[in-house]
Design a protein that fits this description.
Layout: H1 2-22, H2 64-73, H3 90-103, H4 113-120, E1 136-139, E2 144-146, E3 161-167, H5 178-193, E4 198-202, E5 211-216, E6 234-236, E7 243-247, E8 251-253, E9 264-266, H6 267-279, H7 306-316, H8 331-334, H9 342-358
Parallel strand pairs: 3-4, 3-5, 5-7, 8-9
Antiparallel strand pairs: 1-2, 6-7
Helix pairs in contact: 1-9, 5-6
The chain binds zinc ion (ZN) (2 copies).
One zinc ion (ZN) binds near residues 216, 220, 235 and 245.
Keywords: Hydrolase, Metal-binding, Metalloprotease, Protease, Signal, Zinc
Family: Belongs to the peptidase M10A family. Matrix metalloproteinases (MMPs) subfamily.
Protein name: Metalloendoproteinase 1-MMP-like protein
């Protein structure tokens, strides 16, 4: 009897040591980009909103009207009053709920720390929802279009739609070379061109180009003034307007290795996003999608996800050479799937267990 138990314990220890080899590591979900810390820049636009953390219905805070203006600006309040109360009322709760749903974050109806961090993140200036002022947006499940689903139309009988783009003569930045900026945009346009039957060509004549790229600071005459460091980074207009503007107050970067600033923004990520607007996509609720509204400093997000691809192909059809790649999957669309060969592990474990029982 004693020998029987001793033998059983030995098998159990052997089993435990084998399990480590059979299951070498826990399969973890893909790592999300780091969140933007609330106190990253005390001078950044919207940094004062951190004082509203944990506010819920009934709370009253001096300055909460500014937060209401923020939501009004991005299409969450269909209200054109310039004056708002500082109280967290029923209407404001419904605004917070709508925002949390759109951003794909936990829907609590409170200004929990995750929600406030999200609000403070730098973002695109294009509105998230339809209001009487901003003629946006037909919302699908995840990707979205502008109201009426505008897109560029073919003017000649060429096989593919041809769009030209040009850079402004007088409104560019000088700390990144012109050739580097051209390369950034060539790659950004190329990503969209690989999914849809549209060709993009750089031309010299800014005046006649379909897509006009420029850097502006503050009020620059289109009714959408920029706001300084972080806050709104850039904006673009729906088809077939073609204007694409970047905020000169940002520290634009093409390579974080050579840019030490903690508020540096990746030019290529923002360019790829804004070209999506130029082509007719509005904001997506899929966090990993290029068309998600916000982007933290020092984060690079240039790869189109399936949500972006499905949205743009709904408008323009598919490029015949389009090829799906696994990098297009996002956390939401991929999920966990057992990998090939995993059944071998389960069979091994089962055999070991049977072995213990027989012993
Ligand atoms: Zn945008
Ligand atoms: Zn503008």
């Amino acid at each position: 009897m004693y020998r029987y138990y001793r033998y059983n314990i030995l098998v159990f220890i052997l089993l435990l040591s084998l399990i480590q080899h059979v299951f070498p590591a826990r399969i973890l979900p893909p790592i999300s980009p780091p969140e933007f810390p609330i106190n990253l820049s005390a001078n950044a636009t919207w940094h004062t909103f951190s004082k509203f953390t944990n506010a819920g219905k009934g709370a009253s805070f001096s300055g909460m009207s500014e937060l209401k203006k923020y939501f009004q600006r991005f299409g969450y309040l269909d209200n054109f009053s310039d004056t708002f109360s500082d109280t967290f009322d029923d209407e404001f709760e419904s605004v917070v709920l709508k925002y949390q749903k759109k951003m794909g974050i936990p829907v609590t109806g409170r200004l929990d720390s995750g929600t406030v961090s999200q609000i403070m993140l730098p973002r695109c200036g294009v509105s998230d929802y339809i209001t009487r002022k901003h003629k946006i947006i037909h919302v699908s499940k995840k990707y979205a279009f502008f109201d009426g689903e505008p897109r560029w139309r073919q003017t000649s009988k060429t096989e593919n739609l041809m769009l030209t783009y040009a850079f402004s003569d007088g409104h560019m930045i000088d700390y990144i070379s012109y050739s580097e900026i051209r390369d950034v945009f060539q790659r950004s346009f190329g990503r969209w061109a690989s999914t849809i039957p549209v060709n993009f060509t750089e031309v010299d004549d800014y005046r006649t180009a379909d897509i006009k790229i420029a850097f502006y600071g503050g009020d620059h005459g289109d009714g959408e003034p920029f706001d300084g460091v972080l806050g709104v980074l850039a904006h673009a207009f729906s088809p077939e307007n073609g204007r694409l503007h970047f905020d000169t107050a940002e520290t634009w970067a093409v390579d974080f290795g050579s840019t030490g600033s903690n508020v540096a923004i990746d030019l290529e990520s923002v360019a790829t996003h804004e070209i999506g607007h130029i082509l007719g996509l509005a904001h997506s609720s899929v966090k990993e999608a290029v068309m998600y509204p916000s982007l933290g400093p020092r984060i690079r997000k240039v790869d189109l996800k399936m949500d972006d691809v499905k949205g743009i192909q709904t408008l323009y059809g598919s490029n015949p050479n389009f090829r799906y790649t696994p990098s297009m999957e996002s956390d939401i669309s991929s999920g966990y799937r057992p990998v090939r060969g995993e059944w071998v592990k389960w069979v091994t474990l089962l055999v070991l267990l049977v072995g213990v029982l027989v012993c």
